[in-house]
Write a structure and sequence with these properties.
The chain is an alpha+beta fold. Helices cover 26% and strands 32% of the residues. It is globular.
């Protein structure tokens, strides 16, 4: 028996509870799940009370790390598929993520009450893709409450109890798989009790930092925080222990009783950032506040990597690594909404692997092979023996009507087709090998536009492969502007350079002399445009007279502009950097 009152149906059915688990403002505005949320319920089944811990995870590929961490605390997964939209690309990715973890997978169709729902067709897709029998696929309508009880009872019947893998008689071992920061309580740690029983007042020690804490509060999420006197073996719950430093709540850490040391649990593989961007405060006075905001958000989102960066034009900042562009967009939006931080985000870049040659340059970087995420750190061409860029395997599910347009889009992004097969009578699943740099900014938007919003896209990392990557420099009157440098494939460098030059021409303020804007790779100029000078009317004081007088004034003006161009310093305003560097 579980010593908790029946909490099934604890949430009232009214208009205020339309988005119960979507707590973040960005989730409610965008209609997506960004952060995995936990809810524990007690259900009475055949006279026996069962405590179920349910985790609502995101579906988008950019938040896969949230899903993988949640699976570590679960024995089963519900594969939820929209009966109206059918199987999507991220459905395939998350299925295999659960399959690799060897947990029970229960297929469920949702939104069967919609007018255009096609349960029979979607069940056929599930059979073709994952070999699920149509009879084992449950049908529900969360809106009307149809079939929800059947899903809960299927979990009880099919998913094994965590007690089979845990040991209640062993010393306490806790797996920390999520955390967030509370200004009054400090770090709130969401844990799985792997062994033993945790009680209030216990003194626990972190295997990562070696620091000890007293458990101040203990509880489960229903989904509201509900205090309990103790957590039993196999349960998921939270504890607070006055942990004030964000770095002390390391996701994947093992906690044990201070009096009984034990072997740490296998943690999580560190997240592999796919997209990098510079983050700078609008005003350098806000640097300490922004630093604290980033630390608190990184506690809540352990997949973000952080390194310090500085720029002559933008000041002190950070280079942050994200799992994708949506991840980057959501993180910066949370900085603004939850912490009131106004930031500048530079154009997103991907990591490149460079093999160096020459003893001096290898000693400078410390090793022969380096990962470059910032264009300003790119070595000189004669010091590079090979460049590699990251590739991904993209999975696109689309109606066959848009096949031609999507193939054209993939080929224009240097894609190589791997496979194509029918999902059902009208939908196709296509796999393309694509360079990450080609899809990171606007590929998803272009795909949605070409397919009228029906195509879905997901990708998985394939690692680095040799590619001809060059550093594109931007010059103003022959002087390189480091902050505007970028990395690109040699076939895309000319087009990219031309676009940046045209944008600079529109945003740079005019001077009294002509400004030449150039895009160059090494010593080769790939694109150029000029900003015409502001002309002063030196002939205004001439009211007639000999033409030689006018020519003399014009000649003197031309000579002055020539000297000014040679010695004049072009100051690029901060606003121009913001317009050029921002996404």
């Amino acid at each position: 028996m579980v010593p908790y009152k029946n909490t099934f149906g604890a949430i009232k059915k009214d208009t205020k509870n339309k988005q119960v688990l979507d707590k973040l403002q960005v989730e409610q505005e965008r209609g997506i799940t960004v952060k995995a949320q936990t809810a524990s319920i007690v259900y009475n089944y055949h006279g026996q009370k069962y405590l179920l811990n349910l985790v609502d995870t995101p579906g988008h590929v950019d938040f896969t790390y949230e899903v993988s961490r949640s699976l570590a605390a679960c024995q089963g997964a519900i594969l939820l598929v929209d009966a109206n939209e059918g199987v999507q690309a991220q459905t395939v990715a998350n299925f295999y993520l659960a399959f690799v973890n060897e947990i029970v997978i229960i297929p469920v169709l949702n939104k069967i009450d919609l007018k255009n729902a096609n349960p029979a067709g979607v069940k056929e897709q599930l059979k073709n893709l994952f070999d699920f029998s149509p009879d084992e696929v449950l049908s529900v309508s969360a809106k009307l409450g149809i079939g929800v009880t059947e899903v809960i009872e299927a979990i009880i019947r099919l998913v094994p109890s965590p007690e089979k893998k845990c040991n209640k008689d062993s010393p306490v071992r806790l797996l920390l798989f999520d955390s967030w920061f509370d200004r009054y309580k400090g770090a709130v740690c969401l844990i799985l009790v792997v062994d033993g029983t945790l009680k209030k007042g216990d003194h626990i020690t972190s295997s990562h930092s070696g620091k000890s804490y007293e458990v101040r509060d203990l509880g489960i999420l229903t989904p509201l925080e509900t205090s309990v006197p103790q957590l039993y073996t196999g349960q998921v719950g939270y504890f607070t222990a006055n942990i004030r430093a964000a770095k002390e709540a390391q996701v994947g850490d093992t906690f044990h009783l201070k009096s009984a040391k034990c072997e740490p649990l296998q943690g999580f593989k560190p997240a592999k950032p796919m997209v990098f961007g510079g983050v700078y405060p609008i005003d350098q006075k806000e640097h300490p506040a922004l630093k604290a905001a980033i630390e608190h958000l990184c506690l809540n989102d352990a997949s973000v990597s952080v390194s310090i960066e500085s720029s002559a034009s933008l000041g002190q900042g950070w280079r942050l690594g994200f799992l994708g562009l949506l991840h980057m967009d959501v993180f910066t939006q949370r900085l603004e909404q939850e912490h009131g931080a106004q930031v500048i985000i530079t154009t997103p870049t991907v990591p490149y692997k460079v093999k160096l040659r020459g003893g001096r340059v290898i000693r400078e970087f410390g090793r022969e092979e380096v990962i470059i995420t910032n264009p300003s750190l790119w070595p000189e061409k004669n010091n590079i023996s090979e460049t590699n860029e990251p590739f991904v395997m993209g999975t696109i599910i689309t109606p066959d009507t848009y096949l031609g347009a999507i193939i054209g889009l993939c080929h224009s992004r240097r894609g190589v087709q791997y496979s194509m097969r029918n999902l059902d009578n009208t939908r196709l699943i296509i796999q393309y090998k694509l360079p990450l740099n080609e899809i990171v900014v606007d590929f998803y938007d272009a795909l949605k536009s070409l397919s009228s919003g029906y195509a879905t896209f997901d990708y998985e990392d394939l690692g680095f492969e040799p590619s001809d990557i060059v550093k594109l420099n931007i010059l103003l009157n022959g002087q390189v502007v480091p902050e505007l440098s970028t990395l690109a494939h040699i076939t895309q460098a000319r087009t990219l350079g031309k676009n940046i030059c045209e944008k600079l021409k529109e945003t740079l303020p005019k001077q009294l002399f002509q400004i030449a804007i150039q895009a160059a790779v090494g010593g080769d100029i790939l694109a150029r445009t000029n900003i015409k000078p502001v002309r002063k009317d030196v002939l205004a004081k001439c009211y007639g007279g000999d033409i030689s007088r006018k020519m003399k004034l014009l000649k003197r003006q031309a000579e002055g502009k020539k000297r000014m161009k040679m010695y004049g310093n072009i100051e690029v305003p901060r606003e121009t950097f913001i317009n050029i560097l921002k996404r």
